[in-house]
Amino acid sequence: MSEVEQSPAMAAALRVLSGIGGAIVLFTSALFTLGASLGAPVGIFVARRRARRRDRPLTRGASWFAAVVGSIIAAGLVFLLVGAFMPTDAVQQIEKGIAEGQAARDTARAPTWMTKAFPPTARSDSATMQLMNTPGFVRVTVVVALLFACVFLGAIAGSMGWLGSVLLGYALWGYRP
Fold first, then answer.
1. What is the pLDDT of residues 19-37, one digit of tens each?
2. Which of 86, 116, 141, 163 has the most CB within a 10 Å radius?
C-alpha cells in the first residue's frame, strides 16, 4: 500500500512500531559498538543541516555516508578514551610484549618453492630487521592499525546507527529519507 491509501490508524501503528524498532536497533548497536553508533545520528544531523543551507536534498546514500563518518569519529574518540584511561602497567606490559616479540629470532623459514623461485627471500634483510625493531616503526604501525580499526568499526556502527536513526526519524517526523 502506498502512503495515500493507508488509514490514519495504520500510519500511526507503523510510526509507533518504527519508533520501537529504531530505539531497539540504536541502543543495542550502541551497546555492541561501545557507543560509536551514537555518532551516526549526529553525522546525519550535520549532513542534513549542511544540505539545507545549500538548498539541496539529503539523499539516503549521503545520509548513510554521514552516519558512517560520524561513527568513525566517535570510534576514534572511544579508542582515545580507552587509551587515555588505560593503566600505566598495562601499557608497560604491552611494550614489554612487543620488545620480547622483536627480540625473538624468526624461526619460520620461507617455503622451498618460494626460495627456489625467489632466491633473495632465503636470506633475511638486516635493514628490514633494524627498521622493524625501531620504536617509531612500532608506533606508526599501531597508529595505522587503530585507524583501520576506526574505519572498520565506524562502517559497522554507522550502518546500524543509520538504520536506527531512519526508523526513529520516520516515527518522530513521519518522513522517509
1. 999 999 999 999 999 899 9
2. 163
Residue 1 lies in a domain: no
Say if CB 18 and CB 171 are below 8 A apart: yes
User: Phi and psi of 146, rounded to 5°?
Assistant: -65, -35
Please state the domain count of the chain: 1
Which residue, among 38, 113, 108, has the nearest Cα to 78 in the 3D structure?
A: 38
Give the CA radius of gyration of the chain.
Answer: 25
Distance CA 173, CA 18 (A): 11
Q: What is the pLDDT of residues 105-118, one digit of tens each?
A: 666 677 788 778 87
Task: Examine residue 72 and state whether it is found in any structural domain, yes or no.
Answer: yes
Mention every residue, 6+ apart, whose C-beta is less than 8 A from residue 138: 98, 102
Secondary structure percentages of the chain, helix, strand, coil, to 5: 80, 0, 20
Residue 60 lies in a domain: yes
Prediction pTM value? 0.77
